[in-house]
Amino acid sequence: MGRKKIERIKEDVQPEVRYNFFRADENSRYLEWLFLIVDTPKEINRISNRIYDILAPIEDEGMTYEGATRTEGYNYRMINFKSTRDSGSAQPSLIMKFSGIRKDDNLRHRENPDGLENYLVKELE
Questions:
Q1: Rounded distance, CA 104 to CA 45, Å?
Q2: Which pTM was predicted?
Q3: What's the number of domains the chain is made of?
Q4: Per-residue buried b or exposed e for 42-63, using 16+ beta carbons within 10 Å of the residue's own CB
């Protein structure tokens, strides 16, 4: 698993989780999942672990992007992985107990190798 830091994040961020999923390829039994978590470092770890528990078994964990926001105490982490669990497995109420979770269709890989990183900067800057 690789990690990449992104430096510039907007002020006034609020805790939230965004996610997206898609079939890894046409004939695959795997869904690829992407989650963007914005919260305190302690909560990011708790939420990440909850996501991994709910969608286990996890296969082929990809790049993780993470960094600090300018709002003191808030960080972010973007994780992605493949799982055989279907989209009904990621019930928002199982992952977070508040309304700060939403599906984000723009959270996806891009043609440009830095495309996902650029999207994160644009969204969180």
A1: 21
A2: 0.80
A3: 1
A4: ebbeebbeebbeebeebeeebe
